Amino acid sequence: MEYPGVRALDDVTVEFRAGEIHAVVGENGAGKSTLMKVLSGSARPTKGRVELGAGLGTPGRAAHDAHEAHFTKPSDAIRAGIAMVHQELNLVPALDVAENIMLGREPAGVFGFPIRRREQRARAAELLAMLGADVDPTRSAAGLSIADAQFVEIAKCLASDARVLIFDEPTAVLGEREASRLLALFQRLRDEGRAIIFISHHLDEVVAVADRTSVLRDGRLVQQFARGEHDEGALAAAMVGRDLGSIYPEKGVCDAKATPAIELVDFGAVGRSRGISLAVRPGEIVGIAGLVGSGRTETAEAIVGLREATGTVRVEGRDVRFRSPREALAAGVTYVSEDRKGRGLHVALSSIANTTMPSLDRYARVGGARLDVAAERATTARWIRDFAIRCARPELPISSLSGGNQQKFALARWLETGPRVLIVDEPTRGVDIGAKGEIYRILADLARKGLACIVISSELPEVIGLSHRVVVLHAGEVAGELPRERLTREDCEERIVRLASGLSEEKERAS
Amino acid sequence: MSAASGNSRVESSGSNDAKSRRPRMSVQKFLQEWGVLVAFGLLLAISTWREGFDFLSFENFRTMLNSNAAVGILAVGMTFVIVSAGIDLSVGSIVVLAAAIGVTTMNWAAGREWSEGGSVTLGVAATLATALVAGMVNGALIVFGRIAPFIATLGGLAAFRSVALAIAEAGEIRSSSSTLFAKFGRSGVPLAWQSGVDEAGNAVFKGLVNAAGKPLTLTYGIIAFIVIAIVAQWFLSKSRFGRHVVAVGANETAARYAGINVDWVRFRVYAIMGLLAGFAGLLLSSRMNSVSTSGLGLGAELDAIAAVVIGGTSLRGGFGRVWGTVIGILILAMITNILTISQVSPYWQGAVKGGVIVLAVLVQRGARE
Predict the structure, then answer these.
(1) Which residue in chain B has the smallest CA separation from A80?
(2) How far apart, in Å, are the Cα atoms of A253 and each of A284, A421, A450, A468, A484?
(3) CB contact A82 to B (< 8 Å)
(4) What does pLDDT average to in each consecutive run of 10 residues of chain B (369 residues)?
(5) What are the Cα distances from residue B32, in Å, to A40, B38, B354, B355, B366?
(6) A362-387 pLDDT per residue, tens
(7) Distance (Å, whole) CA A88 – CA B216
(8) How many CB pairs below 8 Å do chains A and B form together?
(9) Distance CA A419, CA B7 (A)
(10) Tell me, what's the ipTM?
């Protein structure tokens, strides 16, 4: 498999067995996604082939023998029993859950009319129950949480009786608890004799659930591990081809008596969070943990004026109320969105335009009638150098870069505005382990230079490894806070999970 | 392979020279990017073949540009609207409303014993002001009323013309100015100067002259169109406003997150579109020295949108080019020209134009994905 000028996959032979959870890991650009595209019919190999085992195949042909597959489009793969659950979920918001699950396979009379709605709902409910998902099949698919939408998506695959299920970073968008629920489901599906293939950047979950793990690097299969043969360190080393050591930089010191760069008093995003009080001092990194849906992102958005807010925000001691990110920016408060493709960057525009977008006024000449393109170029080149961004031609659309390099630009564009407060939401989502370490170092360096940093993350090791203290949100309220000295204790991860799931101290003691 | 059900196996490899190969531009990619120029060249060749080399003359291009200058100005404004991921269906109606109010105001002033110069100045100002206000109404409905551009301007399409019809009771408004007002649309800058007098006492000109030896003029309409197009291209590709319009069109949410004042950007786009429609209205009413409220600017929005699309601007927003729109206008003009000369019934011309528009979209589809 190759793209113009690049060989995305090079002589890779992998076998995926029935009744097996097979993890595929590798840095961004290692060829994982390409491999999955070949399997699911959305890309065709230039050389080599996909062989299907017995039991897989197009209806109507004898399916007891192994045979070569000729997929030209994703629906060919689906018909052969191979289904892919994409990171971007593809539910139709206008339809209800049952209609989504049975889409294209509606139980109906001759000529597809009428659809037998009761049967359709019953079948959908049956599939959801099998998955252990607590979703009402009659509710609308719009407004489902990401975790529930994922379960609906899986139910959809099972409705087509998929024997091979492929997941592209399924837990990247899930909180800790939803993720473990999904992984438990993987094990159940495997025990039914299905083949589960999943791509993941979370090495801990790979070690925990995968029966076999294939490591790709630069388009080649570099190593395969069976269950119990590996730990996270071995996987990471195989991925990058060297030993990594700790990827978390040393935490800087910060003056606990300094005026907070930003202070929230009884703050909240209307309808999503409330009563949040929090102060972040220059040089401090405060982590915000919590499950998906706990109001972390919404609170951050409310701070910079993207949502309606209640309560008070103080920046360097002065009360402020931002009505738009523009006003927040003017006061030195910036927010880097978790949704890099949809909100954080303009993927269709060049790396240069993206880098200078929030600070564009600085390049305006003659009252904005002309932009100093040479200066924009120079700024972009400086960030490329400082952050070691792999970007040969910054005038090309930024979508041509890997996730890690895009994320560095997403940070750079805000740092270019010279902020005093930086709120980063999921700073390493979809970023490979090498770039992760670099982003951590960048954030720690910035804090050491006096930036006040709020890091929102679903990855507990990340919040713990990076922050001076961690605030845990549950259902829109502060459930607890872990000061610096608690973050070095063995049980801190467990403690955060308990707080995030709403287990208060009293309840803990009672049980 | 084992016989267990559900197994699958992948083998894949690349060829050896893959790394040394450079990405090559495919024919499809080339057409997506430069198709409008190819089409222009083809039409130029066909027209020359059908009509002879006279087709390539300055005079012929001057005629084509002159009769399409007003729609051209609309199309330039429409390029910004479409790049911002919007649409403006009301431009043809703004043209007639602005012209009707402009001429009415001019006549009112003339009736009050104003000088011709004074009343024409007032009329021009009223035309432009009306158009700007109409554009601002569109912008306000879309930005503050949160109405989809298609719907808001569909309302404008009906409402603005209706006001013009009511003013004139669906009739024609004649200008009271005998010559001065008509100058905008009819005269221009002569491109030749008198060099002497021949034996018969007739003036002899140097420079660009027509077959009879009289000087050719570059009409004010053409000059306005060209100047507006050049300034617009500059602003779209080189200014802060242009960058913001592209950013809003490519992804409005991302633009808002980046600290761009999205509402203000979109409002200005529709206000500018309105003002440009005012210039078009001025040109058209001046050329006729009257305003036919039922006919002026009718369907102009469709021609303008067609030119923008043919020029390669993405209807989904986020990418566009004014020079493409200008060529789009020329392509539409040339098609009409050829069809007329080939004696194709005017009833069929719409079908051919429609086909060209669909073809343009098909060829350029996916250009920016």
Answers:
(1) B6
(2) 8, 17, 10, 9, 11
(3) yes
(4) 42 38 62 84 88 82 92 97 97 97 94 91 96 98 96 96 93 85 87 82 81 84 96 95 96 93 96 98 93 92 94 90 95 89 86 86 64
(5) 29, 10, 19, 17, 8
(6) 999 998 899 999 999 999 999 999 99
(7) 61
(8) 207
(9) 53
(10) 0.81
Residue A269's H or E segment, with its range, is strand A262-269
Asked if A139 and A152 count as a contact pair (C-beta separation under 8 A), the reply is no
| Residue B181, amino acid | F
**B146 contacts chain A (CB < 8 A):** no
Contact call for B6 and A361, based on CB within 8 A: no
Output the pLDDT for position B19: 36
Burial (0-12, 13-18, 19+ Cβ within 10 Å), B346: exposed
- In this predicted model, which residue has the larger pLDDT, A223 or B107? B107
- E strands present in A95-254: 164-168, 195-199, 212-217, 220-226
Which pLDDT belongs to residue A502? 75
Q: Do B243 and A194 touch (CB under 8 A)?
A: no
Tokens encoding B111:
């009736």
pLDDT (mean) for A116-138? 85
- Chain A residues with CB under 8 Å of B28 CB are none
Q: Which residue has the tokens 């979370």?
A: A202
CB contact under 8 A, A38 and B318: no
Domains and CATH numbers, chain A: 20-91+144-240 (3.40.50.300), 262-343+412-510 (3.40.50.300)
Q: Are residues A51 and B24, on separate chains, in Cβ contact within 8 Å?
A: no
Inter-chain touch B243–A4, beta carbons under 8 Å: no
Interface of A with B in 361-390 (CB under 8 A): 361, 363-364, 368-371, 373
Q: Give the closest residue to B129 by CA, choosing from B270, B274, B292, B293.
A: B274
Q: Domains in chain B, please, with CATH? A: 26-364 (1.10.3470)
B6 with A55: Cβ contact below 8 A: yes
Residue B265 phi, psi dihedral angles, 5° rounding: -60, -50
